[in-house]
Amino acid sequence: MPQTDRSRTDASQKSAIAQLADREPLCSIRGLGRHLPERQLTNKDLEKLVDTSDEWIAQRTGIRSRRVLPDDWITSDLAAAAGERAIADAGIDRSDIDLLIVATVTPDHLCPSTACVVQRKLGLTGIPAFDISVACSGFGYGLSIAAGMIKSGLHRNVLVIGAEAMTRFMNYEDRGVCILFGDGAGAAVCSKDGRYDVLYTDNGADGSMADMIEIPGGGSREPASPETLEKRRHFVILRGREVFKSAVRQMSLSTVEGMAALGLEPTDLDWMVPHQANARIIEAVGEQLGLPPERVIVDLEDKGNTTAASIPIALCGLHEASALTPGQLIALVGFGAGAAWSCQILRVRG
Ligand code: UT7
Question: I want to staple 276 with a disulfide (CB 3.0 to 4.6 A). Which of 72, 208, 246, 300 is the partner?
C-alpha cells in the first residue's frame, strides 16, 4: 500500500502548493469536449442476452447502463463530434490546430489510422494525424505527446481525442466482459496557455501482462479466418480479477509518485479523475490514497467503461459542471490493456 508522509506540517504543505503557481507547465488544456451516444444498453437489456442480473452488475461494477453508437456511426464519428466541441470550447479557429492524435483500440479499421479519417471529418486538412493504441491509458499518453510537442515548439495547438466504439468488439455471449464496456469520446485542445495546466506526466507499461486484456484475432498473430470468427477471437477478452488487482495497485502507486514529484501528497488533491473501469476499483484506489469519496470521480453508472474515452469524458463532465476552481489540483490516472498506465497532475489556472 502506498505510504504518505503524515509528519508534514500544514505550513510546508501550504508552501508546496503555493509554489506550484510559479511552476512552468508542460502544456495546458485550453478546451474540452465530449460526445456520448443517446442510445442506452441497460443491465435489464443484458439480462435478455446473457446469464446475468441488474443486481449483480450494479453491485460488482457500479454500472447500470452503457451507451451504444448509432448503427451508421463509426469511431471517427464519435471522435469528430467530441473534437468539434473541444475546438469550440477552446475558442480558437480550427485552422489553428496543427496536430491531431486519436487514442483508440476500436479504430474504424486497421489501416489507415482513424485520426486521418477524423482529420477529414473535422476539415483539418494537411496537419499530421495519427492514432495511438494504449487502451485505457491512451488519453494520458496523448497528453504526454502533446506536452512534448508543445514544449519543444514543434506544435502549438494539439487536439487529443480518446474515442471508442467498444460495443462493436463485445462478445454478447461472454457475461464477464460484455457488461462492462460502452461507447463514447472525449477530447482536449492542448496549447501553451489554457485553463488546466499539466504540471506532471508519467506513463508506463508492463508488457509481461500483455495478455491480460486483448482482442486476439485480426492481427498478424491470428489473421482473420473462418476459425477465428467461429472462436469469436475478434472480441475483447479479459482476465477481470487480475486486472482488478493490478489496477488498484498501479493507479494508487502512480498517484503517490506523481504527487511526490510535486512535493505533495495524494490527500492534497482536490479531484481524482480515474479511468472508469469499475466503481469498486475506483473506491479502493480512493481509500488507499486517503481521499474522501466526494473528491474521487465515479462517472460510469450510465456510461460503462469507455476505455481511452473514459478519462476525458469524466474530466469534461467536471469542466461542464463548472466544478473546477482556480488553484485546484486534479489527478488523471489510467490503467488497462498492455498493461499500460498513465498519470497526469493538472492545476486549474488562476
Ligand atoms: O479498463 C480495464 C478493463 N477493465 C477490466 O478488466 C475490469 C476489471 N475487472 C472487473 O471489473 C471485475 O473483475 C469483473 C466485474 C469483471 C468481475 O467481478 P469479480 O468480482 O472479479 O467477479 P469474478 O470474475 O471473480 O466472478 C465471480 C463470479 C463467478 O462465478 P463463480 O465462479 O463464483 O460461480 C463468475 O462466473 O461471478 C460470475 N460472473 C457473473 N455473474 C453474473 C461473472 N460475470 C458475471 C455476470 N453476471 N455478468
Answer: 300
Q: Which of 244, 245, 283, 298 to mutate to test the pocket of ligand 1 (most atoms within 8 A of CB)?
A: 244
**Which CATH code for domain 198-348?**
3.40.47.10
Respond yes or no: is residue 305 known to be catalytic: yes
Atom of ligand 1 nearest to the CA of 275: 1
Q: Which of 157, 305, 316, 319 is catalytic?
A: 305
What's the predicted TM-score (pTM) here?
0.95
Whether 316 lines ligand 1, by a CB cut-off of 6 Å, is no
203 is catalytic: no
Q: CATH 3.40.47.10 region(s) of the chain?
A: 27-193, 198-348
Pick the CATH number of 27-193 from 3.90.960.10, 3.30.70.1230, 3.40.47.10, 1.10.287.70: 3.40.47.10
Q: Which ranges of the chain does DSSP label H, i.e. alpha helix?
A: 10-19, 43-47, 54-61, 75-90, 114-122, 138-152, 226-230, 240-261, 279-289, 310-320
The answer to whether the CB of 277 is under 6 A from ligand 1 is yes
- Model confidence pLDDT, tens digit, residues 77-105: 999 999 999 999 999 999 999 999 999 99
